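task queued by scheduler; priority normal; single chain, no ligands, no partner chains; default sampling; output format set to structure tokens
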Amino acid sequence: MKVAVLIARILLGVLFAFAGFVKVVPVMAMPLPPGDAGAMMGLMMAHRWLLFYGLVEFAGGLMLLAGRFVPLGLTLLAAMITNIILFNATLMPKSVPLSLVVGLMELFLVYAYRASFAGIFVAKAKAAV
């Protein structure tokens, strides 16, 4: 189990660190997808949303790669992965299987680190003040 967790953590870390880096520092030109997906991506680029996505993806990926603050990295990436799955399901259906695999790896890691998320499910949480 430890080996599977390490492999999934490194794979997701590399994937999101690279994807985030490419969005923040455009090292290669990426063509826009055709149709509505391209229009949406164009809007996201014009309004700097892709820069924000890139920063969050890069930070989350680095946390997973470093093995430090992994639950925080998983929390940041959970929002990104949900957005990616919904984007692909509605605008690029051919990409859904790959995004689902990424989502399953995320769920596997959340399960592996479930003890770190236990406090979220407390019904009557008390402030630390």
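post-processing summary
- Residues 20 and 54 are 4 Å apart (CA to CA).
- Helices lie at 2-24, 35-46, 49-66, 70-91, 96-112.
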